[in-house]
């Protein structure tokens, strides 16, 4: 419980976020400007420069894209959906990529109905973010267990367990900070965006990890309530 409290307290304010975004976007923009200036002054832009420019443009696009998912309140429509079907779709979406990385998804879904009131695309984004992190943590391949468990009439939980590199204790408290990443091409936005989406669904997200053993992310959401 304490852990959950701490997590929701951590959600950053809009101002802090905006400053972070500005900073992260300014770096690639500076590179782009530098190369264009070089071209103007010397006409010496080569394919290597252009490759870097494209990479930097992709990075801006990626960062802006992650925020677009959050910034569409008008488009949000909550509908009743069974979370097992949402997960099934996400698993098929990532299956071929997983196969290429020697990763096997091992779903274990409960038999009962697990309908929740949700914005399907946002929840898909959450599961994509979490599964991608799990895959990226297993460069040698392995198994990712995906469990769906229904608790009475109240809640359903989804646990995603990988056998990856794990997260050192001193890093755990930084998870969910915008732009916190240890990957060369990471944005460090996946967990933050996911936490916000889960929070807007009145749910919780918990991360437990042991270095060199693996990480378990557990997302708990309220079940749809039957009409009175
Ligand atoms: P990104 O994936 O772009 O780095 P995220 O917000 O998705 O950003 O994750 C932030 C960081 O948390 C990652 O860079 C990684 O260090 C750590 N992390 C998240 N999930 C896992 C996992 N399943 N196993 C190991 N480390 C993880
Ligand atoms: Mg990620």
Automatic annotation (TrEMBL):
Major location (coarse): membrane
Keyword DNA damage (UniProt): no
Location within or outside the cell: Cell membrane
GO molecular function: ATP binding
Keywords: ATP-binding, Cell membrane, Kinase, Membrane, Nucleotide-binding, Phosphoprotein, Transferase, Transmembrane, Transmembrane helix, Two-component regulatory system
Domain Histidine kinase: 20-225
Protein's UniProt name: histidine kinase
Organism this protein belongs to: Paenibacillus solisilvae
Whole-protein residues included: 468 to 695 of 695
